[in-house]
Write a structure and sequence with these properties.
With about 500 residues, this protein is an alpha/beta fold. Helices cover about 30% and strands about 25% of the residues. It is built from 14 helices and 22 strands. The strands form five sheets. It has a six-stranded parallel beta sheet, sandwiched between helices. The longest helix has 27 residues.
Length: about 500
């Protein structure tokens, strides 16, 4: 049976690094019932702490008496619809679990090198951090043909996905089971259990050295843990990865992605709306004497937006500026090399597109103001460049008290078919399964301009009942596709 409930004994609750709350949330967001239990010998202070924790994380809190029968009956009553097996997780130092007389599966923590005891009603793990791996393994055994998706990303991003139910350890309708890969236990023991790897490798970048040509990044240094994942993927070339690390290099380099977007011109038909890249220029030095001429030759006028060439994964990748004349480049603090990009007047309306396999979704968001309002901010700022961090806050027209112009575009102004064609073209060009891009519509011309491309976005603007199943389907489809490719390669000629 699937794991339907987990009871965490107080003897293990404070062993997990980062606090028990992280583990409890992972379980609850996997639709696994969770409870805390404690014995009569626990101090009043610790009992109070456990009860506070139970309230904070909305889970049950049970007292285990000497015989444990009362607690078993309480839990059986409270979890009458558990819908699966119950795991009781306890430290090997506590003997009370040996008195259990029920159908629970006991997970004993703190024993190394043993996987099960003779009666098969007990499993042994060394650390509590191994519990998610154990649950995923049990659930895969219960369903048989499920796939375990091992995922790795920074905690805040994982939280954004998990709170919408994207990463359940309980099997999804697509028969996927999600395992949070952790560096707290050996990765080798986790990776040998997974069928698919999902990563946000940009969260694990320590440094990026850009190449001297348009061939994008020449050297990326990942964290020690991500390097181990990278070696595993290199040693297992047939392993399914969403998406291979080489495929995301293009979105790490703003110059290279701009060069790729130039190919959008092949999608345009005379007499119809146009989708295109913004005009741009790569700059290695803001002090070159012919900068004004080079900007003009690149069809750039003012204002323009200046962005670091490195698009993500490093601290200052989102440190940007809006400049209003060549003089603004003097002592500009945007990291070099940089990309000077056309600023498109778009009535403060941004269309965020999300590609999840074969599905394309979009959302409408407020954006930066038109150039006339930016100029007012520029003048109030003493005619100095407008500096901002695009992850924290965007330039606004503060005098008018809103984030730009009142949007003049209607939904009908968006040529959805054109942008979906571009999404399909871009997916093929980048060879990515899950990515996002931003579109603005230029005032006057109606041009659809793709101003940014990013890998594995949160797609939180799309309702979860639509986005999450599409997310699962994209992963499942990629797995099935790779499996078919492998089978085809092994067929005799």
């Amino acid at each position: 049976m699937f794991v339907g409930g987990v009871i965490l004994d107080e003897s293990v609750l404070f062993q997990v690094r980062g606090g028990a709350g992280v583990l409890v949330r992972k379980l609850q967001r996997s639709n696994i019932l969770t409870a805390i239990c404690y014995g009569l010998d626990l101090s009043a202070h610790k009992v109070s702490e456990l009860k506070r924790m139970a309230v904070e994380y909305s889970c049950e809190c049970f007292l285990l008496n000497a015989s444990m029968d009362d607690a078993v009956n309480q839990i059986s009553t409270a979890w009458s619809d558990v819908g699966g097996s119950i795991l009781y997780v306890v430290s090997h130092n506590k003997d009370s679990f040996r008195k259990l007389n029920c159908h629970w599966l006991v997970i004993v923590v703190g024993v190394e090198g043993v996987s099960a005891c003779d009666n098969s009603t007990m499993l042994y793990i060394n650390k509590l951090e191994e519990l998610p791996l154990t649950i995923c393994r049990l659930n895969k055994k219960a369903i048989g043909d499920a796939q375990i998706v091992g995922y790795i990303m920074k905690p805040s991003r994982e939280e954004d996905f998990a709170k919408r139910g994207a990463f359940p350890m309980y099997p999804t309708p697509s028969r996927l089971i999600f395992l949070p890969l952790t560096f707290e236990i050996p990765l080798s023991s986790q990776l040998k259990e997974v069928d698919v790897i999902l990563h946000k490798a940009t969260d694990e970048i320590l440094s990026i050295e850009l190449g001297s040509s348009s061939e994008s990044c020449t050297r990326i240094t990942y964290t020690t843990g991500m390097q181990e994942v990278q070696r595993f993927m290199e040693d297992h070339s047939d392993f399914v990865v969403i998406d291979p690390l080489d495929n995301i290099f293009s979105v790490l380099d703003r110059h290279k992605i701009q060069l790729i977007l130039l190919g959008l011109q092949d999608l345009n038909v005379e007499g119809c709306r146009t989708i295109r890249a913004p005009h741009f220029l790569k700059v290695n030095n803001f002090s070159v004497p012919d900068l004004a001429q080079r900007l003009s030759e690149a069809k750039l006028s003012f204002p323009s937006i200046v962005k670091p060439q490195v698009a993500c994964g490093v601290a200052d990748a989102h440190s940007m500026a809006i400049v209003f004349g060549v003089q603004d480049f003097k002592d500009l603090s945007v990291p070099l090399p940089a990309v000077v990009q056309e600023y498109v007047n778009h009535s403060s309306t941004l269309f965020k597109f999300y590609v999840l396999g074969e599905n394309v979704f979009h959302a409408v968001k407020k954006s930066t103001p038109n150039s006339v309002n930016l100029m007012k901010s520029y003048e109030r700022n003493g005619s100095r460049p407008i500096m901002f961090d695009s992850l924290k806050s965007l330039p606004t027209d503060t005098e008018n008290g809103h984030s730009g112009d009142v949007a003049s575009f209607k939904v009908d102004d968006l040529d959805l078919r054109l942008v979906k064609d571009a999404a399909k073209w871009l997916a093929g060009k980048l060879d990515l399964t899950i990515f996002g891009f931003d579109v603005v519509i230029q005032e006057g011309t109606g041009d659809h301009v793709i101003v940014d491309v990013n890998y594995l976005p949160s797609f939180k603007e799309v309702p979860k009942d639509i986005a999450i199943p599409a997310f699962w389907d994209a992963i499942k489809t990629k797995f099935e596709s790779r499996k078919t490719e492998r089978a085809t390669r092994t067929l005799p000629p």
